[in-house]
C-alpha cells in the first residue's frame, strides 16, 4: 500500500548532478518503494527549456511512483509544500572570481531560497545542500529560514564519507560494506579531515594496522583532493557519485543508521567538539530516523585535533565573509 505522496524539491534541475539524481528519486531510491513523489524542479529562466527536456525523459520512464513534475524559476512555487529539499543549483566559480565573490553570488541564490522555504515549505521539511560551497550555502539558507528548526539543515558530506570508505576498503582489499565508523570532519573542501582513528573492519579497529605515512601522505590528501582530481580527469565535477551520495545521505537520514555504525553529515553545530555553535560542519553522526545524534566523546588525538581545527577555521572564515557581505547576521 502506498503512503502519502511527498513533495521533493530539486534546484539546479537541468544540471549534471540532477540528471543523475532525478531518475533515482523518481524510481523510489530516495524515499523507498512505497512513497510516491511529486517533483518540483527549480531552475534559472535560461535553463527552463532544458529542464522541460529532463521532465520529458522522466515521463518516458513511466515510473509508477512519480505523481507529478512541476518546473519553475520561482522559489516560492518550487518549495511550496516541500518535505525534502535538495539544493543542488549553485553558482560555479568563474574565471578571475575570488572566493568572496563566489560566496556573495551564492548568497543571492540561497538567501531567497531560504526565505521561500521559511514561508511555504511543509512543517516536516528536511534540507540537503549540495551546491558549493555547500556548508556555507547551508548556513546562508538557514539564516534566511529562522522558523525552520536547525536540525533540518544539512550539507552534503556523504560523498567525502563514501570516498574515504572506498579508499580504505581498496587499500585493505575488503568490500566497502565491511568498513564501519569512518568519520569525515569539517568543510566540503580540501581542508576536510577524513579520520581513520575509529574506523573498523570486521568489528576491529584498523588504524594500528596502517602505515602512518600512507594515512597522512596518501589517504587524507587523496580523499580530500578527490573532487579536484575528478574535475581534472572528466573536465567536469563529479555528478553520478554526487547524486548517489545525496540519495545515500537522505535515505539514511530517514531510515536511521544501521546498528551502532555512524556516518558523516554537515549539520548545524551545537558546540560539540569545540566547533562554534551555528556553523554547518561535518561531524560523525548517527541517524535516528527522526534526526541526527552527534557521536560524542570520541577520543581526538593531537593530530586529529589540529586537522579539525584547520578545517573549522576555514568554515569560520567563510561565515565571517558572508557576514561581512551582509548575507547573514
Ligand atoms: P551544473 O553547473 O551542471 O548545474 C548547476 C545548475 O544549477 C545549472 O543548471 C544552473 O542553471 C542551476 N542554477 C544556478 N543558479 C540557480 C538558481 N538560483 N536556482 C536554481 N537553479 C540554479 O553543476 P553540477 O555539476 O550539477 O553541480 C552542482 C553543484 O554541486 C556545484 O556547486 C558543484 O560544485 C556542487 N557539488 C557538490 C558536491 C558535494 O559533495 N557537496 C559534489 C559535487 C558537486
Ligand atoms: C566534488 O567533491 O566532487 C565537488 O564538490 C568538486 C567541485 O568543486 O565541484
Automatic annotation (TrEMBL):
The keyword NAD applies. Its EC number is 1.1.1.37. Substrate binds at residues 93, 99, 132, 163. Residues 7-146 form the Lactate/malate dehydrogenase N-terminal domain. Residues 158-321 form the Lactate/malate dehydrogenase C-terminal domain. GO terms for molecular function: L-malate dehydrogenase (NAD+) activity. It is an enzyme of class 1 (oxidoreductase). Gene3D superfamilies: Lactate dehydrogenase/glycoside hydrolase, family 4, C-terminal, NAD(P)-binding Rossmann-like Domain. The active site is at 188 (proton acceptor). GO terms for biological process: malate metabolic process; tricarboxylic acid cycle. InterPro entries: L-lactate/malate_DH, Lactate/malate_DH_C, Lactate/malate_DH_N, Lactate_DH/Glyco_Ohase_4_C, Malate_DH_type2, NAD(P)-bd_dom_sf. The keyword Oxidoreductase applies. NAD(+) binds at residues 12-18, 106, 113, 130-132. It catalyses: (S)-malate + NAD(+) = oxaloacetate + NADH + H(+). Keywords: NAD, Oxidoreductase, Tricarboxylic acid cycle. It comes from the Bacteria. Catalyzes the reversible oxidation of malate to oxaloacetate. Belongs to the LDH/MDH superfamily. MDH type 2 family. This is Malate dehydrogenase. The gene is mdh.
Amino acid at each position: 500500500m502506498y503512503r502519502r505522496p511527498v513533495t521533493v524539491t530539486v534546484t539546479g534541475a537541468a544540471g549534471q548532478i540532477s540528471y543523475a539524481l532525478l531518475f533515482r528519486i523518481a524510481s523510489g531510491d530516495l524515499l523507498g518503494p512505497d512513497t510516491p513523489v511529486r517533483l518540483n524542479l527549480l531552475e534559472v529562466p535560461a535553463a527552463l527549456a532544458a529542464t522541460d527536456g529532463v521532465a520529458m525523459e522522466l515521463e518516458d520512464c513511466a515510473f509508477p511512483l512519480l505523481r507529478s513534475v512541476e518546473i519553475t524559476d520561482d522559489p516560492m512555487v518550487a518549495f511550496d509544500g516541500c518535505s525534502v529539499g535538495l539544493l543542488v543549483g549553485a553558482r560555479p566559480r568563474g574565471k578571475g572570481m575570488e572566493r568572496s565573490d563566489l560566496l556573495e553570488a551564492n548568497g543571492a541564490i540561497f538567501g531567497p531560497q531560504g526565505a521561500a522555504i521559511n514561508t511555504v515549505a511543509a512543517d516536516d521539511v528536511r534540507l540537503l545542500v549540495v551546491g558549493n560551497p555547500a556548508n556555507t550555502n547551508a548556513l546562508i539558507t538557514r539564516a534566511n529560514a529562522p522558523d525552520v528548526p536547525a536540525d533540518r539543515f544539512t550539507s552534503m558530506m556523504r560523498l567525502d564519507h563514501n570516498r574515504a570508505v572506498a579508499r580504505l576498503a581498496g587499500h585493505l582489499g575488503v568490500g566497502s560494506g565491511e568498513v564501519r565508523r569512518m568519520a569525515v570532519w569539517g568543510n566540503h573542501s580540501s581542508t576536510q579531515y577524513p579520520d581513520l582513528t575509529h574506523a573498523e573492519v570486521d568489528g576491529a579497529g584498523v588504524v594500528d594496522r596502517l602505515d602512518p605515512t600512507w594515512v597522512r601522505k596518501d589517504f587524507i590528501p587523496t580523499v580530500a583532493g578527490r573532487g579536484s582530481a575528478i574535475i581534472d580527469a572528466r573536465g567536469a565535477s563529479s555528478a553520478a557519485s554526487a547524486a548517489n551520495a545525496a540519495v545515500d545521505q537522505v535515505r539514511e537520514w530517514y531510515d536511521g543508521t544501521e546498528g551502532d555504525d555512524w556516518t558523516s553529515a554537515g549539520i548545524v553545530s551545537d558546540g560539540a567538539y569545540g566547533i562554534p555553535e551555528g556553523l554547518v560542519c561535518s561531524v560523525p553522526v548517527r541517524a535516528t530516523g527522526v534526526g541526527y545524534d552527534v557521536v560524542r566523546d570520541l577520543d581526538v588525538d593531537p593530530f586529529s585535533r589540529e586537522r579539525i581545527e584547520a578545517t573549522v577555521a576555514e568554515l569560520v572564515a567563510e561565515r565571517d565573509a558572508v557576514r561581512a557581505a551582509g548575507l547573514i547576521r
